[in-house]
Each structure stands twice: as C-alpha cells, then as structure tokens.
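User: For a reading group we're discussing how well predicted structures match intuition. Take Catalase. Before you show the prediction, I'll give you the sequence so everyone sees exactly what went in.
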Amino acid sequence: MTNRENRLTTSWGAPVGDNQNSMTAGSRGPTLIQDVHLLEKLAHFNRERVPERVVHAKGAGAHGYFEVTNDLTKYTKAKFLSEVGKRTPTFVRFSTVAGELGSSDTVRDPRGFAVKFYTEDGNYDLVGNNTPVFFIRDAIKFPDFIHTQKRDPQTHLKNPNAVWDFWSLSPESLHQVTILMSDRGIPATFRHMHGFGSHSFKWTNAEGESVWVKYHFKTDQGIKNLDVNLAAKLAGENPDYHTEDLFNAIKNGDCPSWTLYVQIMPLEEADTYRFDPFDVTKVWSQKDYPLIEVGRMVLNRNPENYFAEVEQATFSPGTLVPGIDVSPDKMLQGRLFAYHDAHRYRVGTNHQMLPINRPRNEVENYQRDGAMRFDNNGGGSVYYEPNSYGGPTESPADKPAAYSVSGEAASVSYDHNDHYTQAGDLYRLMSKEERERLVANIISAMKPVEKDEIKLRQIGHFYKADPEYGTKVAEGLGLQVPADVVKS
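Assistant: Thanks. Here is the predicted 3D structure of Catalase, as structure tokens, for the group to look at:
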C-alpha cells in the first residue's frame, strides 16, 4: 500500500495515479490533451531554466558567517560591524565573468566575488571581483566591452580581434589587462584568491561623519594560481574543477576563510589625491592608506540545492544598509541600476522574496503584486504612503550622509588620464619569471589578432607603461614598437 505521506502529487497538490504512462486514445491512439499532468510536466520542464546571467553566468556558492575582529565604529554605524565578536550570516558566490553557464572554470578571466551579509538592518551586498581594478571606468562602455568578450555574431566563436581592438582603443584597461594576463589570471581555486569591492564606497558613523573606503578580502589559504598548460588540461578534463573543489573542501571540513581589510580616505583628500580615487581602473596606494583589519569571513555550509541558492541568488552594489553608501564612481553608479534591473528580468520582480535573497529582518513597504508574489501580498494592510492608518514610515536618522557635488551637467570624462603609471608599477613589481610568463601569455593571446594596426596600438600602451614591457611583447609578435611611441 502506498504511504500517503510520500505520495507523488501534481504542482497543485493532487495525487498522481500514473507517472509512467501518458493518457492516450487506446494503446496506440494519439495523446489526449486532457492529460493535464503530462501537460504540466512538459510545460514546467520547458521553463526550468531561467535566463542565465549576461555576465558571471558560471559560478559556485556557499553559506558562512562574518565575524568582526576590530572596532571600526568611529568610521561606520553599520550595525553588523558594531562590536568585536559579532557574527553575521553570509552567502558568497564566486564566478567567471565572460563564459556561458557551461563554460570551464579554469579559463583566463576575472573571477566574481559577491558577498551577501544578512544583517539586522537588511541585506548588504558587496559585489566585486578577485581584482582591485576593472577594464573600464564608465558604465556607458560596459555593454560594448562585454560584447567583445562574448561570441562573434557571425562565427559564434570568441573573437580576439574584438577583444584587443577594444582594449587598444581603451587605454584605461591596461592595468586590469596586466593583472588578467599575469599569473593571477587563472586562480588555482576559488579558495586561493583575494576578493575586492573594487569601487570606492562611503562609510558614515553615528555622528554623521563620513570617509571613503575600499574593501579587500585577503584569502587565509594563501594565493595560488594555475599554470596555463594545467589550466587548459583541466578545462577539457574537468571544466567544473573550481566548483568541485569548493564543494568538497567544505564537505570535508576544510572551510575556507578570508580576512577583510579596508583602506580609509578622509573625504577632503579625494580632491587632492594624485589619482582620482573614484576611478575603478586605479588603486589607492597602501603606503598612503594602509590596510585596516575589519573581520573574518568563513564559509562552512554548502547549498542544499544549487538552483534555489546559487542560481537564484541576486546581488547588487545598490543593496545597502545605514552606515554604508556609494561614491561618485561612474562605473559603480551605472551598476546601481543595471544589477537590480538584471535580476528583475532574469529571476523576477519579486526576486528579493526568494529564501536565498530574503532579509532576515521583516520587510515593510508598500510594494505590491508582480509575477510570482508568493506571500500574502500585504494582506489587507494599507498600500500607500503617506497614510493615516499607521503603516511603516521613513526614519530620517537613516538617510545617507550628504557629500558635495559641483559642475555642469554634461557628458565628460574623468579629469585624470594617466593610464600607464600603475600598470608600469605593477609590471616592475613582478619577478623576472613573472614578467616572462605575463609577456608569453599576452603574445599567445594576441597572435590570432588579424590586424597589425591593433597589435601595434596595444604594444604602444605596454611600452608607455614600461619600455621593456612593450619591447618584449613586440619582439614576441615579430613587430617593432611604433617610432612615434618611442620618441614620446
């Protein structure tokens, strides 16, 4: 006799009498449209895959906690950072950037590093990469940049011509290109890489005093990277290598951890610093603004269901809590819209209500309806504001602190256009062997480029960062550094 507590049911809860045979007109007759169980199964199957992320499609995630180890309340009133020893639940998603959902984990690509803190003041998302900088610094260029990383519309192949053409015409990319083509372009595992907020953010304390801040998650496992030949071998033999490594490490009790540090810059120094502190293609020197420890993040629990937790997890740098706010970084400003909008398209307008995204504190607002609204939709409560019926109201104490802005409304670039100093400094910091591998990786990546014009333009950027850098790439490609670049 069937156990009534373990009966197979339809999606509307009715018991299923036969799940092996569809309903037909006789043993050979056509299938009947009245077989609603069959229709529901097929219709649901057709819709089991939500659209993959446009970027960061392939990823892995885990649950954990963040524990404060240093009192920084003089800088921020964020409650989850309010006392040493305080723990906040977290969910972290690691990812590659350009590849599709089924791509390999071990390709040369930046890695996404997204952290969701489930705080008592709502969720806080820190959505960055394993690099402290990015390829571009204005969100208006982002769709074009990502197009170059995706497949050619005619051949449906990756297109090195587009990649290097865009980079050579966007010299601000040089710093990130140098990191990407270095040893750190292929991390050994998700556990053996740093994470960064990348952008500049603003912290405000209980007295309303603000500072600019940058985030650095330093891996406690140490940095490890993959040799290019081993990475290529793994890409063919085990394309899910990083996903498997993270899951098995946590399963076996080898729980990875990162120590979070911040750099703090007084507001007024942003106007005089030698690089624009809001330009995401640049770093702040740690000699100028030393790292200050904040706390430690540990990942200790694997997802129970990949789709429900990793695939449906939604992150946005606009998911903020009191005490933490944004900066005028142009790339960040664009992400504030684009990320939430991507989630509304991909997962649904009520994506924040899904268990993996839902805040641990009670949500009280006047948003109603929308596809897949699966709670009581506010019941019979008041549904507008202001109102006279005692609904939730604003709390002025939680308004973000103001900062001064000035200027004309116009499409303008950043004032600072030195794209070479930091890339050159990074090159010179590398050992001889690291520089040789960097150059070899670049040569290998640029050889398929069809136009010498593109190669020479990019060589010029390398040369301006460091003459040896450009010369060695040129020699490897059988070219010479352009004479006008050498003279300049």
